[in-house]
Design brief:
138 residues; elongated
Length: 138
């Protein structure tokens, strides 16, 4: 099973919404806390993928990411219900542009991680890890 490219965009979109919605406390303080946790998850994933030099390492990084995102997902969904305006990426206030830029800066790391996954896509462990990631991204 191939990892859906839309899932990468979904992850990026969720983090973009979270980052742009969290100026530093105030109304979106809760969002900021969850998204800081998400940023740590993403950083850990990118670091693990960068160091991975085997199918087993890639699968381990993917499974770790899926587990951590699975723990964050309910919190993000709850915040999206509480703050429905954070879903609309096309209508963000101009003062949030700097946060949106930070998200765009991590894109190359996301794409590099996907390339590493594709290198080992035929490995059964990696395929199983893709399934775990896809399940979390549903």
């Amino acid at each position: 099973m191939k990892f859906n490219k839309w899932a990468i965009f979904l992850v990026a979109g969720v983090f973009l919404v979270g980052f742009t919605a969290c100026g530093g406390g105030g109304k979106y303080g809760e969002v900021q806390k969850v998204m800081e946790g998400g940023l740590q998850v993403m950083d850990g994933y990118f670091n693990d993928m960068e160091k991975a030099d085997s199918a087993g390492d890639v699968a381990k990084a993917m499974n770790k990411f899926a587990k951590a995102m699975g723990e964050l997902k309910p919190k993000m969904e709850e915040l999206e219900k509480k703050f429905p305006e954070i879903k609309d990426q096309t209508n963000l206030p101009p003062e949030l542009a700097a946060m949106a830029q930070k998200m765009m800066e991590i894109w190359p790391k996301m794409m590099e991680a996907e390339k590493k996954i594709e290198m080992y896509q035929d490995d059964p462990e990696v395929q199983k890890a893709r399934e775990a990631m896809n399940k979390v991204m549903e």
